[in-house]
Amino acid sequence: MALVDSPWRAIVSTALVGTEQQVFQLPIAPGNLGHLLAQLNDKPTGTALLSAAATVALHQRVGWLPEVRSVPTSEPCPSSDLPRCSPHAARYLQQTLQDQYPEVLPEWLALAANAGQRVPEMHLPALLDKGRQQRELRAAILPVLGQRGQWLAAQNPDWSYAVAFTTAADWETGTSAARLLYLQDLRSHAPDRARDLLQTTWKQESAPDRAKFLASFRTGLTMADELFLEQVLDDRSKEVRRIAANLLARLIDSRLCQRMLHRIASYITFKKAAGRLCAFEVALPETCDAEMQRDGIDPQPRTGLGERSWWLQQIVSATPLAFWEQPDLIGIADLVRTAELSEWNGIFLDGWLVATGRQRHPQWAQALSGHTSNSASDEMQGLLQVLLPEHREACVLRLIQTQKDMNEFFFWNVLLAFAQDRSPWSDELTEIFLSGVSQYLSASQVPRYWEFNRIFHDIFLCIPPRFLPELLTLHSAANSSPFEELLHQSLPLLQFRQDMMQAFARGEGT
Amino acid sequence: MSSQWTTEQVLALAPDAASAKNGRGLATRRKWVSLGSQGTVLWGECQGSGKDPYRTQIDLSEPAFRCSCPSRKFPCKHGLGLFLLLAEQPGEIGAAEPPDWVADWLASRSQRAEKQAEKQVEKQTKLQEQATDPIAQAKRGAERQRKVSGGMQELRLWLDDRVRQGLATLPQEPYQFWDTIAARMVDAQAPGLARHLRDLAGTVHSGPGWIDRVLEQFGQLYLLIEGFERLETLPAAVQADLRTQIGWSLNQDEVLTGAGQADLWLVVGQRTEAEDRLKVRRTWLHGLASATSALLLDFAHGNQPFEQSLLPGTCLEAEVVFYPSAYPQRALIKTRQEAALLSKPPLGAESIGAAIGTYSQALASCPWIERFPLLLQAVIPRKEEAGWLLQDHQGATLPFSPRLDSTQGWQLCALSGGHPLAVFGEWDGTSLFPLSVWVEDSFYGFG
After folding, report:
1. Which residues of chain A make contact with B215, given a CB cutoff of 8 A?
2. Which residue in A147, B50, B234, B321 has its CB near the most CB atoms, within 10 A?
3. Residue B7 is nearest to which of A66, A69, A87, comparing CB atoms?
4. Mean pLDDT, residues A305-319
5. How far is Cα B197 from Cα B219, in angstroms, rounded to an integer?
6. Are B91 and B59 members of one domain?
7. Across the interface, do A21 and B415 touch by the CB < 8 Å criterion?
């Protein structure tokens, strides 16, 4: 219908303004259409126009041909691929993607990856969208996409995070998200190569990209990175400088840490009585000079702190913990107690907490966790994060077993904190949880009902579903106690997980 | 019990999203106190909140459902849960002797089928009796004919006015403008024309090219008027098409007296659309021996279920009767046997050009075709800036309907992986809405 001089255009142009304004001329057309139109010559104007419109429109519609042209395409997906998970297993994926127990999705992804199976085609778009919104899921999504999922992700720029990098040759041409993924992957097994690669393009990168790429150095960080990081302390971007300083504070042999040691010696004096530490003498820094700021000390205090205390606390955070463990002094636990008594206890305890996290020091973590026996679970969680993942459960077990007159509050907080890891619990810890439940079954009321609801929900995401029979027994024993309702609400989650695991155990991939 | 039903097929039966979700929750062995099957029948007892478990049963030959729960949804969540369990864990449902409550239902079903057959015979006799009172019938017919003729005259004048005054100002007219003439057509007992006129109220606001679409519609209405004036001179099939367009509805029982066409009919596609409180379901059948298509229309109000269940991807041995037309599409099932699964795609057109050729021929015999079934054997879904399209090995393209949502487009793309697949869809002359896809002998429904 695009031709200006086509019969159709001629009819439309008259119809648009009306036959009152413009005399209607029957269009001329070749062949049978022309014959047909010619028969309308002696009809009244309205009849002629509408009949011609009907005839020509139908003629065009019947004669329409599909457009033949080239459409930009990519290579088809290779046909060999991982087996798909069974339709039964796929249904649990579908349910979590449709927001029924969405928190179980990481476990589904792990089960599929363990089985060496991939996500069926129909669910790929929804899963790839999920990974776009929830960055933390991406690492778990990649292994279950299969060839087909990776191929699909390459067709949609929104899903570029899932596009597999194969060679470093793509480093300069890939999208920012894909390059970051490649760099993160490389840092995990060849950190030096990753650093060399980044240095080749460092000067061309935008500030946000520099910050993102540099943050990947947390993985595989060693003294080999120190030279580069020290140079980055002079970067144009404040955010990039901050990340570099944070990374260097993790390397106790770095020049930055040595400078911190030098600084702290002038602010802290160990006061002794009878050869034993009895107190810290503290002198607060007078200024936050350019050198300090270069080493990542932020001159702007956070709310609630004086600026000079804030500066010192940051120095404590970046000082190697070995500084405090002087040979003639007492153990870490006593250091912590002494600090608690100090009027500057915030500087020490909060500063040490950060330093423990940076330096991943298990003894310090344990000493500080003992100190925080009444602290809230999110602080506890921060401490657990300090430990390597494989050490965390052992630490939780030790905490629960060594705290003799541990109160209920502490017990649940430790378990809740550990449940945030979402890692599978051992039988031993699960049994401790079960005995905790049966101990409190007799309680006539559950304090902080809402919190317990959350505790149960999070713990039920971690314990092995084979404990379901024990929990069902507890549930029936919990007759009309407040725990009955709590268990009643959380048990379906455990059942869902059990069904899901069974679907994988039974279902062959296809 | 073995099963080839897929989760998607079962979920497609759910009356709404909540039922699908709840049904999925029940598709686990633990929820069922007992389970059993015999032949095409399966049953189970599902523990609900009450004291007694609900008794749920399915006859797969249709499939038909029954449950003792009070839900008014159909099928209820228990029926869906049991069916899903069969699709996903068929090993859990062993063969058994049906308990009394199942046997009772089976007996009542076969009784009902007999009764329906009797009723059918009764109706036919009644029809014949009516036909034997030709005077009354002719009188009613003549009265309507007169009313419609009057309406047609009015519509002709109205259309003449439109082209005399020009179409340019139509978008400024209020809805009332269209509704008035549409209401006149309803009074004149020509509801088909009324529907076209009400649709036009939307067409004038449909963006660039609206003038072409409106003028084409006016032309079609005019064609109806002209055709109606010389109705007696036209072949019977063309008369039937004109009468359908104007709004004469044929009595189903009358249609069913026509000759049936027996075939193995594959349910190739299904789509349900809601118009106000009315659900309209279009089911496309493809005869495997005859390679013809048939369209079944079903209606249901509000949450009511459709009377017959027709699962996409299944095959039924049936006799269908077509409504009279110069290009027969709409049909009714006269008799049907058991449904069976067939996941292989039927043989479709080898190229987009060939498929569009069939459409052109159909349009030449009946210009009123609104949706045409296209079965394409090997096409690849592709994405362009402007939207999704299909392409065949010759490079011919067919745009997808803008109503196809982005996730569905990507699902098609994922299923294809850049390789050709078999697609069935509805072509409206401008764009294709895909309803089904076959890949490696697996069936996927998109309706």
Report:
1. 11-12, 15, 53, 57
2. B321
3. A87
4. 92
5. 12
6. yes
7. no
The first and second tokens of residue B152, run together, are 């047609």
Neighbour count for residue A272 (Cβ, 10 Å) = 12
CA distance A466 to chain B (A): 14
Angle at alpha carbon of residue B116, lines to B114 and B119, rounded to 5°: 115
Q: What CATH number is associated with residue B289?
A: 2.40.50
Burial class of residue B213 (count of CB atoms within 10 Å of its CB; 0-12, 13-18, 19+): middle
Domain boundary among B205, B222, B246: B246
A149 in a structural domain: yes
Q: What is the DSSP string of A229-288?
A: HHHHTT-S-HHHHHHHHHHHTT-TTSHHHHHHHHHHTTTEEEEEETTEEEEEEE---S--
Omega before B75 within 30 of 0, i.e. cis: yes
Domain range for residue B73? 7-102
Do B386 and B432 lie in a common domain? yes
Whether A50 and B397 lie within 8 Å, measured CB to CB: no
Q: What is the DSSP string of A76-115?
A: PPPS--PPBPPHHHHHHHHHHHTTSSGGGHHHHHHHHHHT
Residues B404-432 have a mean pLDDT of 95
- Give domain status of residue B221, yes or no: yes
- Total tally of structural domains belonging to chain B: 4
Q: Residues B193-208: pLDDT tens digits?
A: 999 999 999 999 988 8
pLDDT above 70 (res B321): yes
Kindly state whether residues A184 and A130 are assigned to the same domain.
yes
Q: Does the pLDDT of residue B191 top 60, yes or no?
A: yes
A337-367: pLDDT as tens digits: 888 888 888 888 888 888 887 887 877 877 7
Please list every residue in chain A whose beta carbon sits closer than 8 Å to the beta carbon of residue B216: 53, 57
| B236-268: pLDDT as tens digits | 999 999 999 999 988 888 899 989 999 999 999
Q: What is the DSSP letter of B95?
A: B
For A370, B202, B245, B431, the CA distances from B370, given in Å and listed in that order, are 76, 17, 11, 12
Q: Does the residue A434 lie in any domain?
A: yes
Give chain A's domain count.
3
Q: Is A334 helix (H, G, I), strand (E, B) or coil?
A: helix
- Whole-angstrom CA distances from A431 to A401, A454, A466, A470, A471 are 13, 19, 12, 10, 11
Q: Give yes or no for residue B2 having a pLDDT over 60.
A: no
Q: Given this model, what pLDDT does residue B148 score?
A: 94
B110 is a domain residue: no
pLDDT at B184: 95
Whether the pLDDT of residue A3 is over 70: the answer is: no
Interchain CB distance below 8 Å, A95 and B24:
yes
* Mean pLDDT score across all residues of chain B: 89
Query: Worst-scoring range by mean pLDDT, A78-82, A366-370, A430-434?
Result: A366-370
Is residue A120 located within the same domain as residue A204?
yes
Residues near B140 by beta carbon (within 8 Å), at least 6 away in sequence: none
H helix intervals, B166-209: 175-187, 191-203
Type of residue numbered B357: G
Those residues with Cβ within 8 angstroms of residue B104's Cβ, 6 or more apart along the chain or in another chain: none
Q: Which helix (H) or strand (E) holds B139?
A: helix B134-165
Q: Is the pLDDT of residue B276 over 90?
A: no
Is the CB of residue B83 less than 8 Å from the CB of residue B10?
yes
pLDDT in tens, A366-420: 777 655 544 445 556 666 766 667 777 877 887 777 655 556 667 777 788 888 8
Q: What is the ipTM of this complex?
A: 0.82
Q: Which residues of A touch B382 (CB under 8 A)?
A: 71, 73
Residue type for position B417: G
Measured CA to CA, the distance from residue A347 to residue A316 in angstroms comes to 8
Secondary structure of residue B161 in the 3-state scheme: helix
Looking at chain B, the number of H-run helices and the number of E-run strands are 12, 15
What's the average model confidence in pLDDT over B147-175? 94
Q: Do the domain assignments include residue A382? A: no
